[in-house]
Amino acid sequence: MQLMQYLYFYLIQKNMLNKFSIALLSVVVLFSCNNAAKQDEKNISNLTWQQTEAKAKGASLTMMMFQGDRKVNKYMNEYLVPLMKTQYGISLTIVPGQGKEIVSNLMSEKEAGKEKSEIDLCWINGETFFQLRQINALFGPYTDKLPNSKYVDYDNPIIKYDFQQEVKGFETPWGESFYYLIYDSSRVANPPVSMAEFETWWKANPGKFTFSTDFSGMTLLKSWLVELAGGMDGLDGPFNENKYKQYSAELWKWINANKKYFWKGGETFPSGITQVAQMYSNGELDFTTSFNDAEVDNKVGEGVFPVTSKAYILKAGSIHNTHYVGITTNSANKEAAMVVCNFLISPEAQVKKNDITLWGSRTVLAYDKLEKEWQDKFSALPKRKYGLDAGYIKSKAIKELAPEYMLRVFDDFRKNVIEK
Amino acid sequence: MKNKSSILSYFLLFIFAVLPLIAGLGYALLYSFGIVGALNTGFTLQHWKAAFADKAIITSFLYSGTIAGAALLLSVSLAMAAALRYYHLFKKGFISYLIYLPLAFPAMVGAFFIFQFLSKGGLLSRIFYQAGITSSMQQFPDWVNDKYGIGMVVTHLFLSFPFFLLLFVSLIETQRLKDFFQLSASLGASKKQTTFRIAIPVLLQKSFPNIILYFIFIFGAYEIPVLLGRSNPEVVSVMAVRKLQKFNLQDIPQGYVIAIVYTLFVLVFILILLKQKKLAYAN
């Protein structure tokens, strides 16, 4: 009986112990220095592309990425994975995990001194890139070795900088995203665009607005910071402590003065964007936000969002960023990983990715660098019904701010608003 | 024979419970003092100071304890009342199977179910609206992500009630309480006296370790508060995970500080409470 109770206690504690078991494994696996990886990098840089492809044959790769979207999963599992197998002889396995999971996995491997990573490729973005570079977990530079890089305009600031950090060939651009708001035109006649308009709208419609405490909500706060800083280029460039202090103080003051008109009186905020989207679709909220260009079309198509949903952009503009694919420093199959990356930026794969019926993410390829045949294929893709005009979006593009802004906004929003 | 099995049980206990705990705790300690970890640079007290500079950690412990206490108080008293009053219903037949149903719910599903049921846009709110009790969604009371943790308490209640009900029903049987009831009645005790002098003390005493363990279980729960709780105050586990997995990698050691404090708290709690009641459950 006593033993059972102790075991029971152990199981109850499993939440904690899982972390502890990981830690235990990390201790058990001995710390060791690996020169092998360095050797690898030298060899790779000497190979021609044919040699790289030849070496990639028969390799097995694991790619960790966001798998929370049906369309994305379909693109990967029904299109990319079989094609990699038949065309290049690469067995690609997709495992779920994003942002923090990727970082904590690679960080644990590093802390345990593991020489061969369980993850070869990962879908990364801004803050994850920043963190992975911080712990030296990304292989590179390598994008100049990819033949299909000729289609990519690496000087385009939206591609060249990932959260103001120069990519420098350490990740392959995969698709472009931008931040926008979604509202229901049957409930909101004129959606608020500027901060002054938001204030008026909140006062007239209490309880119908909020944002999440995750990446999405913090991006909204950053957009307002940009507006306070005078518009689109106001916070461009490296982190500026003085500017941040000045504008963030104004922002917190403004939010604290108005949060009583937010959902639940601004006393709590939803922890994720999914919750916000869900409350938008059941009518509890009048707005949600998105980074996925095809979101409105997809969700209206699925019957989740009302057909009167519309996308729009804030006065300050729309924060743009690119999502990338990185290769891990300790990947045992870097050649094969490079072959996959090269294919991801091929016109063929990008047309499919851009197709709204398949995925609907904007391409990273420069239209004028493409051959006529591919230009036509891109032009022939079905148009977005609910989305925004591409030219308009481009004119409103704000480059992602330096990662320090995100770090500080996360902390300070908690200190100055939530805990107030 | 008895000796042999007790050696085996201590061995298993060591392998499965003590060893991982010591190793994990050791690692967390090293991490929190900056000795191991990819971004740590050497021994420092800075993470401990930073974690305690913020009152949120103390609030968080008190808040987690209050939620767990409230949920258990309701769950244990309701389950005990139901077990004593409707003992026969739960012993066999359809209801005795039905009661197992919530036990099969993972916490995450339970939390989501309650969210769908009690939120302003949820099922209950819709029923109220259709019935004309509320005229808009905003009028429906705040029962999830609310100030008093109602959503969390209800979910814990929903998940733990059947556990305690089954426990009490089986205790009534194994402790032959029905015989005691008959005996006390034949000696002239009133129904109230039988309930308060015999039934409740015996059941409480026998189930005490389970109640304590369940308290710790709710105290450390993650999924339910992450979905139904508020941004502030946060329960201990939500706070620790936020620090461990946040955007800022420099906050990870603070996450370990919270994990250590939590583990020590639980261990001390268990040792003190179970030691005092050792005689009660030794048999």
Question: What would your notes on this structure say?
Answer:
- The complex is a heterodimer of chains A (420) and B (283).
- Chain A has 18 helices and eleven strands.
- Chain A has helices at residues 2-12, 14-28, 36-46, 49-56, 70-88, 100-112, 126-134, 157-160, 195-204, 215-228, 241-258, 273-281, 295-301, 334-344, 347-354, 372-379, 390-395, 403-418; strands at residues 60-65, 91-96, 121-125, 161-162, 165-166, 172-178, 180-184, 287-290, 309-312, 318-327, 397-399.
- In chain A, the strands form three sheets. In chain A, strands 1, 2, 3, 6, 10 and 11 form a six-stranded mixed sheet that branches. In chain A, strands 8-7-9 form a three-stranded antiparallel sheet, sandwiched between helices.
- In chain A, helix 4 (49-56) packs across helix 14 and helix 10 packs across helix 18 (403-418).
- The longest helix of chain A has 19 residues, at 70-88.
- Chain B is mainly alpha-helical and 283 residues long.
- Helices cover 73% and strands 0% of the residues of chain B.
- The model of chain B has no long low-confidence stretch (mean pLDDT 87).
- At the A-B interface, helix 1, helix 2, helix 6, helix 7 and helix 18 of A face helix 1, helix 10, helix 12 and helix 13 of B.
Task: Please render the helix and strand layout as text.
The complex is a heterodimer of chains A (420) and B (283).
Chain A: H1 2-12, H2 14-28, H3 36-46, H4 49-56, E1 60-65, H5 70-88, E2 91-96, H6 100-112, E3 121-125, H7 126-134, H8 157-160, E4 161-162, E5 165-166, E6 172-178, E7 180-184, H9 195-204, H10 215-228, H11 241-258, H12 273-281, E8 287-290, H13 295-301, E9 309-312, E10 318-327, H14 334-344, H15 347-354, H16 372-379, H17 390-395, E11 397-399, H18 403-418
Parallel strand pairs in A: 1-2, 1-3, 10-11
Antiparallel strand pairs in A: 3-10, 4-5, 6-10, 7-8, 7-9
Helix pairs in contact in A: 2-6, 4-14, 10-11, 10-18, 11-18
Chain B: H1 2-32, H2 46-53, H3 56-85, H4 87-91, H5 94-98, H6 107-118, H7 123-130, H8 150-174, H9 177-186, H10 191-219, H11 223-228, H12 236-245, H13 252-276, H14 278-281
